[in-house]
Structures are given as structure tokens and as C-alpha cells.
Amino acid sequence: MTEESLVTTAQRLQPQLLDHFMNLINEQRLAHAYLFNGADGTGRQQIAQVIAMRLFCQNVTAEGLPCGQCAECRRIMAGDHPDVVTVVPDGQRIKVDQVRYLKSEFTKSAVEGNQKIFIVDQVERMTTGAANSLLKFIEEPVGNTVALLLTANKNLILPTILSRTQIVDFIRVAPSALAEALATAGVIPSQRYLLSTLTESVQAAKALTAEDWLKNAQVSVGQWFTAVCAGDERAFVRVQTELLPLATNRDLQGTILDMIVQAWHDVLRQQNATLADDQLAFPQVAKLSRQLAQRLSVDRLVAIMTLTLETRSQLAGNMNFQGILEALTLQILAQIPR
Ligand SMILES: [Zn+2]
């Protein structure tokens, strides 16, 4: 058989997230509700399935991974395991009766006390009624259950669901063809990787580089990042003096937060790999991010990125940008060991 196994695919697409979740399960610290936010091709379904396999596998490998061979693993891969309940949209929408089915399964598991895992893909397609039903059982977890909600676009998820789940962002690991297209379009090497994470097209990338916006933002976010990592409270001041003047509209505010996520993602990516400067979003602070990759745990990095993404979702509401960015800065400062 030459086909790549599910575990191998998950490992290739999201090596750090896979490690992170396998560790959580090992330490019995898995939360009861997650939102996996990732575009198609980032491995959100594969990671969800491997988590389910790991929870039920009868023959976990020495590396702490599900074997992929035992009866439990096979049934999960075939979509035929009684304790792994999967819901996908029926047509365009996830309907109330599908959530009702989930709910009855949840209730059963409370009675039986068995481990049960619920996987709802394209959760953004829930009708409001379905979302409200789902909320009820996220709020009142029963028995030994884990809910994995999957979406390609977190911006379409109701804030009430966002606030009750742990959000995990799936960032594309493979270097995209966009980076090459940007090179052809004349974008300088130090901006290519960052732009490929922020935009989907050369045209959108060009708009960001106009009038040196991206260049200035890269410098300012880099300086903010440096101050935060030093535990320097002046990071807080930089929000007002440097980041705010760049974030002149909601889109650019979102872009600044996306850039902050990428600064931490640089660190995370360097924990398992040696990356050249032009493979980093912030090459000008490469030395710092390499040091941090040795100093900070995956858990802490994921926590910081999660905080940033939660802040990103607050933008959808009518929150004041300065307020949320200052709050985020303080929260991250608290995460950095002195
Ligand atoms: Zn197995």
C-alpha cells in the first residue's frame, strides 16, 4: 500500500498541533469543546479523526500515536464507530434535527458514562436554531464527551460559540504557490512569506505593500513583539504610538492582528525546523524568534496564538481596537516567563 496513512497526513500537515493534542490526551488534559479553524487542506478533519483514534486506540504506539491498525482505529477511519459521532451539513445547512441527533447521543453518553467524541464539520453552516441547540450542550457538558467543531472560516461563527470553545487555528504549513507568484511580481524576499499568510492573491498583496504600509507594519509589529518578549511594559505604549496609526480601518486592524499571530507562528515553526530568514514572516527579528523557540513551550505558544485569535474575533463586534489590542498586550505579557 503506497497511500499515505491518516496519521502520516495529519503529521505532515500539522506536526506541532498533532504533538500538542497527543500530549493533551496523554496527560488527560483534553478540553471538552474545541473549534478547529482552518481552510481546506490545512488538516482540520485529519487532526480531528486522529484525536478520536488516539482516544479509542487499543494499541497506541511508542510515540504516543494511534496505531491505525486495530479494530477501533479502523472503525473510526471507516466512519463506523458508535462513540465517534460525526455531523456534516445536509446540503447547504446543518439543520436542527441533525443537532437533535447529536444531542440525543450526548444524553446517551451521559447515562452510559462512556467516552464519546463529536465531530461537526463546517459548523458555520449551522442554522441559528441548530447553533442554539449546540450551545446548550457545550455549556453543560455531560459525561465523558469531547466536541470538535470544525470550520474553514471562524469569522462566520456565532460569538456565543466562539466564546465557549477553545479556538485552534490551523495555519497552512506547506509554502504556498502564492509566495512564488509574489516573487515573480517583484515582492522583496523579506515580505513574501508574510504576504503569503495574509492574502490570497498577488493583487491583494500589492494593495498591502502600497505606500510602504506593509514595510512599516512589519517593522512596528516586530518592535512590539521584541518589547513583549522582553517582558517590557513599553510594548503597551507601542500599541498607541505605532500600531494604532497603521490600523486606519477594520480590515487593516484585522491584518495587524494576523501579523501578530504570524510573529508567534514563526517561533512555533522553528521548534522543529531550521528555517531560512526568507521563510519567516518577520525575518528582522529572526534571532529573537529562534531563541524563543528554545525557551517557550508549544503549549504556551498555542495559548498566546489562541489569545490573539480570540482578539481577532472581537473585531467582528463593535469593540474598540485600541482597547482590545492593549488588553491583548497585557495578556501576552503575562504569558511570557521572566
Ligand atoms: Zn489503533
TrEMBL record:
It is an enzyme of class 2 (transferase). GO terms for molecular function: DNA-directed DNA polymerase activity. The keyword Nucleotidyltransferase applies. Coiled coil: none annotated. Keywords: Nucleotidyltransferase, Transferase. Its EC number is 2.7.7.7. It holds the Pfam family DNA_pol3_delta2. InterPro entries: DNA_pol_HolB (IPR004622), DNA_Rep/Repair_Clamp_Loader (IPR050238), P-loop_NTPase (IPR027417). PANTHER family: DNA POLYMERASE III SUBUNIT DELTA (PTHR11669:SF8), REPLICATION FACTOR C / DNA POLYMERASE III GAMMA-TAU SUBUNIT (PTHR11669). This is DNA polymerase III subunit delta. It comes from Levilactobacillus tujiorum. The lineage of its organism: Bacteria, Bacillati, Bacillota, Bacilli, Lactobacillales.
